[in-house]
Amino acid sequence: MNGIDRERLLTEFERLVSIDAESYHEAEMKEYLRRRLTALGLCVTEDGAAEALRSRGATAGNLYARLPGDLPGEARLFSAHMDTVSPGRGKRAVRQADGTIRSDGTTVLGADDAAGLVSILEALTVIRERGLSHPDIELLLTVAEEPYSQGSAVADYSCVRAKTAYVLDLAGRVGTAALRAPSLLSVSVCVRGRGAHAGFAPEQGVNALTVTARALARLETGRVSEDTTVNFGTIAGGTGPNVVPAEIRLCGEVRSLRHDEAQARGRLIAAVFREEAEKLGAAAEVTVTEQLRAYAVDPGEPVVRLFRRAAEETGCEPVLVTTFGGSDNNHFARHGLRGIVLACGMNEVHAVHEYTEADELCRSAELTLRLMTMEALPGDGEPAD
Questions:
Q1: Which of 12, 22, 26, 83 is flagged as catalytic?
Q2: Which of its termini does the chain have fewer beta carbons within 10 Å around, N or C?
């Protein structure tokens, strides 16, 4: 398997899983990765993301690392994130006889994104052990990816020399790569009416819930078009069944592969809520925040051509897809990096039944190793047939 040590990789994966690293609390994971990368001969620095995200309780910054190479060609960036979703404290990887690895059922496993991290670590370990040639390798290991990629949003890109990136953070079979991802807008609405006793004087009140219901009835939700979704996921308000509710708050999101369409949907939501509020003498405050911006990479670009060759040589069928999930790659694209997001063996993420497979982790590490060590060919930059 081209030097991949299966047992070493699985032991490392278990170690990574055991480290508590919920979003904004990645300090222990950061220090562990810093030590491992330094021991492998990489120069490692931490950026100022912890300070930038201090109001959210951040404890660690992003790690940038570099390993100079001896092959010609541009540097290649590899990325994975340090944080996990909740419940992510006290995680434990449980190996099963068929090679499946799960948590003990009380937490997420954290394969999102320990699978990406371990692929990078094992590939680098093999490179150092075997003295393999490679171009310059750069790493950007991020914090707070799960909450709309906040770590990469404030990362220091001034040190990044690479023009292409491989982001190991996609569910599915190894060999799958996402070339396109959506804009994601978060929507926060506060409808303010006027409270009153619902039995004695309802006419003195302005029902904020009625305003909210009327607005929602006018808005499409779900998959509103082939490339756009709208959802309202939380709602809160009111003080009792016998009180006309004076305030209702709700939160939602818009995702679209077309940035202009996402923006248009956001404006529509704001307009509808304000119109319905005005009709009943209420007020609506609507905040639409751009969290991630859509990007698309052409199948003929060098980053994809190299991936396809590496996947084929690893024995994986390269499958190119569009994802409706966001990742650090959305922010990388805004900073000029042409990146794709690679599946690395994670499945059923963000749930306590999340799992990975030992064979898939090994395949992910081998694919990463090939991407780190393959020499680029002139044809990698030509348009696809």
A1: 83
A2: C
Among 323, 170, 190, 328, which Cα is nearest to 252's? 190
Domain boundaries, the chain: 6-181+294-381, 183-292
H helix count then E strand count, the chain: 10, 19
pLDDT for position 383: 42
83 among known catalytic residues = yes
Rounded to whole angstroms, the Cα distance separating 95 from 117 reads 18
pLDDT (tens digit, 9 = 90+) per residue, 79-123? 999 999 999 999 999 999 999 999 999 999 999 999 999 999 999
pLDDT of residue 384: 41
Which residue is catalytic, options 22, 113, 145, 169?
A: 145
What single-letter amino acid sits at 27? A
What is the CA 138 to chain-centroid distance, rounded?
Answer: 19
Does the CA dihedral 128-129-131-134 come out positive or negative? negative
What is the per-residue burial (b if ≥16 Cβ within 10 Å, else e) of 45-54? ebbebbebbe
Give Cβ neighbours of residue 49 (< 8 Å, ≥ 6 apart).
58, 60, 61, 62, 142, 143, 144, 151, 154, 155
Ranges of the chain whose pLDDT falls below 70:
1, 379-385
> Which tokens in the block code for residue 76?
């290649």
Number of other residues whose CB lies within 10 A of the CB of residue 118: 30
Q: With respect to CATH, is domain 183-292 assigned 3.30.70.360?
A: yes
Pairwise CA distance, residues 126 & 110, whole Å = 24
Question: Class of 6-181+294-381 per CATH?
Answer: alpha beta
